[in-house]
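We read letters as residues; the integers encode the fold. Take this protein.
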Amino acid sequence: EKNVYSLKILEIEGQDVLFNSRVEAGTYIRKLVHDIGQEIKVGAQMTDLRRTRVAELSENSCFTLHQIAEAMWLFRNENDDRLLRQIVLPIEEALKYFGMKFIWVADSAVNSICSGAQLMEPGMVAFSKGIKEGETVALMTLKDELIGVAKSLYDSDSLSELSRKQVTKTLRVIMKRDVYPKFK
């Protein structure tokens, strides 16, 4: 079962009901509508669905297809990326919107991770509160650049007490090698 945090009826016209809901991720709205119809013994089916928000991103921060096409045209034909930069959200920003937790990595360890090494405790500088063992986390530089994503081998309480142990198991490296200098 999924949580329904709010359900507000906005308009009723004949048998049609327009509503706004705030629900837990993974909720099937079509099933919710069906279940409500069964509960009040009238039957119900969904005819239209419009997603107005995902995590902290609302439709107010969206762009039309025309705006995206215009930005691409300007970039391809005029070498002007200003509009495109307003539209495309940097991955580091997107991770914050979706609640991913971070582990910040010392500059001296970044290139090693990019080359396949695992993050060890001496290379960990800081981390988000509330990390759970096994949770997917973002490995970040001290400039808040995404290095990659990894599975935390410890929870936040244990991370602060590690000594020279492996901290994470890298799942995917995003940053290219040699962006940061090699550790000597």
